[in-house]
Task: structure prediction
Amino acid sequence: MQTQDRTVDDTSGVVRTLPARADASGSIVALASPMVPRGLEGYDAQPYDVPARLEAGGAADRPGSPRPAAPPLCPTMEDFLAYLELRGRLGTARVMRESLRNLSRYLARHGITPLLATADQLQGYREYIVTEHRTPTGRPLMRSTQSRFLSQVVSYYQWLEARGIIVTRPARSLSIYVRKSRVVVRQHLTQQEATALLQTQARMVMALREGSRRWTIQVRNLAMLAVALATGRRSSGVIHLHPEHLNLDRGELRIDREKGQTGRILPVAGWAIEVLRLYCERARPLLVKEPIPNLFIGLRGGPCTRALLACVIATVTTRTVAENPDLQELPGKHITWQSLRVSFATLLFANGCAIRSVNELMLHRSLSSTARYTPIPVEDLRQVCRTAHPRA
Result:
């Protein structure tokens, strides 16, 4: 079946009609044409070079075998990632790159061009993700991870269709159903545990000589923990904070953009402001080796990273457990940086904060997202029924 595809040449504005065909799976694929979208010349129009070691039988997917390097991402994939970064979705672009590399590796093995992939071929990629793909430790992917990989591939092809680079979206039905949890499955801190965590880090600061290298690092760690527990910021939000975002005199934190969404002015507790003032005035100048816009500085003078945040929370949690044997539940919890965000929302809600206010402080798009962070205990529901139900 032959069809016609109308395409606009973005260099001249001329509308050209290109021949197209429908393949066996029903996808419409544009045939070769002298007019190739800008940036795609000589790459997407040709199949990938298949590495010889991939042709030998997919040894990279066997547990314990080293995973070969994926072929370089094609220009359209790089453009898609740049588009996400320009919209402020830096974390999404970083995770999306991994998914697109997996797709590139699969397509390279089968000699398939991303722009000419059909629905049946992408269904083959789905089966590969579900049945063959393994983690670096040789374990199958969790169902939620499989769903994330596939949904990001769908987003890539949806972007291609919106840009007019492909005629139709072959990944339209590429998905895996995952039942959504009604709550955020993250272990959070109680008020006593959060207080003990901060006190432990404060003692680590006080035990060192002021102005020493170790003292400045521990003050920075205390400031990062204070921001997380006092404002509920994500790890990406902490990493990309700038000194000008803080108004120490007014006790405010300005969030310009976070997770692709425009932010707002957030209040900061007085105790957290004092910690940040100590860090900004007396510790940060000792860490800065050259001008850098980020508020929190890493060990080598660059911005802090997620690995650094994970190391900080793991160290202080271990020390808190050792110094507070009365906290019997804390040793059994796996506390991450996201746990601090969940703790912020849970403690606010438990102390009477309205869910709409929690929603604004968390910078969530919808109340349903906030509700997953603030589950209502059964005892509270039972108490409401006893006091409000006419026949209770």
